[in-house]
Design a protein that fits this description.
mainly beta, 3 helices
Length: about 750
């Protein structure tokens, strides 16, 4: 423990020494003035205000080099009125000698929240509190498809956030013109603040040039809020007035389950979300009987891991300001994980979230959700309550606190003890309560080169019921200590991380797949930056991870040496080699398919190598290929080949397929095992408001094939009609029916129609 306390002190001292400088690009200023006449969002830019507004232009190149001005020209202007802030951008297209193209621009489709690296685009970033930590991003690709998201941790974007705004893009042979309006009710900002952080970014794939209004080093994303300029208002932005939105939904559907004796069921439900702006920077969200049937299905993977896999949250209600809850901790130490709430057939009855800024330095998040009972499994009514509080320190760092309480209402001692999905072995599927209290320091230097975190979390578990056979513990070894520090410059990547997770630490509402260990991680990388030629950058990276059990004995280690080459065409090639050691702490089936297990305490060593290649995104046909070959458990071998391919008929049709093949050779009783995972996807975007997607996933390891087809019509901003069809088949068996010939047998299918409407009061 003393070692970790010393590490925390060092982190704080580093934060104090590197975090006090002024924002680097403070001198880049764009003045915004009130419009003297109405602005019509039509992409023509014929309003008088656009002729007199200040211009942000003469961008800096970020890639392929960050030492000169951009070759592709962009001109940005902004204005506002009482209702909205307006932006126009003239984006001239780059030219390549002797290059021919059927269209002047490159895009994937008209679908929202497209992939940044695969679309000609214009995006911008707003830091409404100028705190260099949290903000908003909006943008469009060259065909007019929208992009919006929340920025957190200084420049990471959550594109699952969705809100009301309008945009129009007009295309010409040598340019595309953007005009958009963002209502003040969509943004969160503090009354009286007249300086916002802002930056603008362009990607022109034909010339492979990424550019930014402010100068940004190539290793950083253009979303880096520490590197924004300043939007200077002629007077503080107007208050949006009463800001209450009601978002009702109505849903109907039918389902047929071929594995039960009463297979057909119908479904009708309705619910309501509400958004209430208590202030211009603090928002209250309410939900009653929410439904998330329209959310994209998870992309399946072949699971050969000893621990639970992580799948990200996709449900809209949990996403706004969700970083304050979800990003507390590390990727494998999350005291709160919202996907624990309401999945697996557990209904959510109601919930509330209060989130936002109290002022420039203080940020608050409060979440309370209540689920319904599930009589079939004996699961009672449960309540999930979370409190997050964050205080900015120095230029960009912060200290955060998180309290999580999961409580079973009307608790009765269960008679079964599954112990999975985040609960420790021997603990029932639900307990009377589980609580987590944590504090963390997040370091982010003013120059964006240093980042890190130091945290302490403690869990409080319900005592065992007298006379029960459960083994829940309330004392001893129920804490987490962790810290990391990273330096990331143009050429160097240096990082170190330490973790200690107690054997009895429990986060029933979190994601902590492994407990009872200490871990050390070291990373060292270097990037060469050649001048000219076809290679943009190249260099090695070494990474080592060591695990130790509670007795201090080594249980795992993995060391990887990789070399990456990035070409000016934007294709990327990586080769790597790795050594692994595993001493099993519990029985494990190396095929994860319900077969015999390797014994606890057995030791396994192997080496492996692999390659990854991603083709240049400018082509209509794109592809990627990853390989892995080498040793495996029990002196066996494993071969993995993963391929992705896509073709687009831009901007309306996008075809993609991914396939993964695993061949595992082990001694008896396992022998040779092969797994296929295949996932074709078809996207049809008839306009930037009408999308149709069909996604098929065949998973041989799970002996399942899933078909998910979804039609979405955005008939008004943030208002949608969804039609969703799902089908699941049992692969390799004909046990449950004969609807599908051959090796597939239908298990269940469902059709859902859902209508939502965003109503501003």
């Amino acid at each position: 423990m003393n070692v970790y306390l010393r590490v925390v002190v060092i982190w704080l001292l580093i934060g104090q020494s590197v975090g006090m400088a002024q924002k680097k690009n403070e001198g880049y200023q764009l003045r915004i003035s009130r419009a003297t006449s109405p602005v019509v969002v039509d992409g023509t830019l014929d309003e008088p205000v656009w002729q007199t507004a200040d211009v942000a232009t003469n961008f800096w190149m970020v890639l392929p080099a960050d030492t000169s001005r951009a070759n592709v020209r962009t001109e940005v202007r902004m204005t506002y009125d009482d209702q909205a802030v307006y932006l126009s951008a003239v984006c001239l297209l780059g030219t390549v000698p002797n290059a021919a193209s059927a269209v002047p621009y490159i895009v994937e489709s008209l679908r929202r929240d497209w992939s940044f690296g695969k679309n000609d685009n214009f995006i911008f970033f707003i830091d409404t509190f100028d705190d260099q930590t949290n903000g908003f991003t909006f943008g469009v690709n060259a065909a007019g498809a929208q992009w919006d998201g929340l920025l957190y941790e200084g420049g990471k974007a959550n594109l699952s956030w969705d809100n009301k705004w309008t945009s129009v893009v007009r295309n010409y042979p040598d340019r595309y013109v953007v005009e958009l309006a963002i209502p003040f009710k969509t943004l969160r900002y503090k009354k009286g603040i007249s300086r916002w952080g802002i930056n603008f970014s362009r990607l022109d794939l034909k010339t492979t040039e990424k550019s930014s209004w402010t100068p940004i080093q190539r290793q950083f994303p253009t979303a880096s809020l520490a590197l924004t300029g300043t939007l200077v208002w002629d007077q503080p932005p107007p208050q949006p007035g009463p800001n209450i939105s009601l978002i009702p939904y109505v849903l109907g559907g039918m389902a047929h389950d071929y594995q039960t004796t009463a297979p057909t069921s119908s479904r009708f439900s309705a619910g309501l979300d509400a958004k209430v702006a208590l202030t211009s920077s603090l928002n209250l969200d309410l939900t009653v009987n929410p439904d998330f049937s329209q959310v994209d299905v998870d992309q399946q993977v072949t699971n050969l891991d000893r621990y639970e896999l992580f799948f990200p949250e996709r449900r809209q209600f949990f996403l706004e300001n969700g970083d304050q809850f979800a990003n507390f901790g590390y990727s494998t130490i999350r005291p709160f994980f919202s996907r624990r709430i309401g999945l697996g057939g557990v209904p959510i009855r109601f919930g509330a979230r209060l989130s936002g800024k109290l002022n420039k330095d203080w940020r608050l998040g409060v979440l309370d959700m209540q689920t319904g009972a599930v009589p079939e499994t004996g699961l009672p009514v449960q309540n999930f309550a979370v409190l997050a509080l964050q205080r900015r320190v120095f230029a960009r760092s912060n200290i955060g606190m998180l309290f999580v309480n999961k409580e079973s209402i009307g608790y009765q001692e269960p008679t079964v003890q599954p112990g999975s999905g985040g609960t420790p072995s021997g603990v029932p599927v639900y307990s009377q309560y589980n609580r987590n209290l944590g504090i963390e320091y997040n370091l982010a230097s003013a120059n964006n080169l240093w980042s890190g975190k130091a945290l302490y979390i403690r869990s409080f578990n319900a005592p065992p019921t007298p006379g029960s056979t459960t083994a829940a513990s309330t004392q001893g070894d129920n804490a987490v200590y962790a810290a990391n520090l990273q330096y990331f410059s143009r050429r160097w990547l240096i990082g170190a991380q330490l973790e200690a997770v107690g054997q009895n630490y429990t986060a029933e509402a979190g994601y902590v797949p492994r407990r009872g260990y200490e871990r050390g991680i070291g990373t060292l990388g270097y990037t060469f930056l050649p001048v000219g030629g076809s290679v943009l950058s190249h260099g090695p990276t070494a990474n080592s991870t060591y695990f130790f059990d509670p007795a201090g004995r080594q249980s795992d280690n993995e060391s990887v040496l990789s070399y990456t080459v990035t070409f000016r065409s934007k294709s990327v090639f990586t080769a790597w080699a790795a050594t692994d050691y595993v001493r099993l702490l519990q029985p494990f089936d190396p095929t994860n398919s319900g077969r015999p297990t390797l014994a606890t305490g057995t030791e396994h060593r192997w080496t492996a190598w692999g390659t990854d290649f991603d083709s240049q995104p400018q082509r209509l046909f794109t592809y990627g290929l990853a390989t892995r070959y080498g040793g495996y458990y029990a002196n066996g071998t494993r071969l993995n080949v993963t391929a992705d391919a896509g073709y687009r008929f831009q901007p309306y049709v996008s075809l993609a397929v991914s396939a993964s093949y695993n061949a595992i050779n082990l001694p008896q009783p396992w022998g040779r095992t092969t797994f296929w995972l295949v996932g074709p996807r078809f996207d049809l975007t008839l306009s930037n408001t009408l999308y149709a997607t069909t996604f098929v996933q065949y998973n041989e390891q799970q002996q399942n094939m899933n078909v998910n087809a979804r039609l979405q019509w955005r008939y008004k901003p943030a208002s949608d009609l969804f039609i969703v069809y799902t089908d699941n088949y049992l692969a390799g068996s004909a046990q449950f029916g004969q609807d599908v010939p051959g090796f597939l047998s239908v298990k269940n299918r469902a059709l859902v129609i859902k209508w939502t409407y965003w109503w501003n009061l």
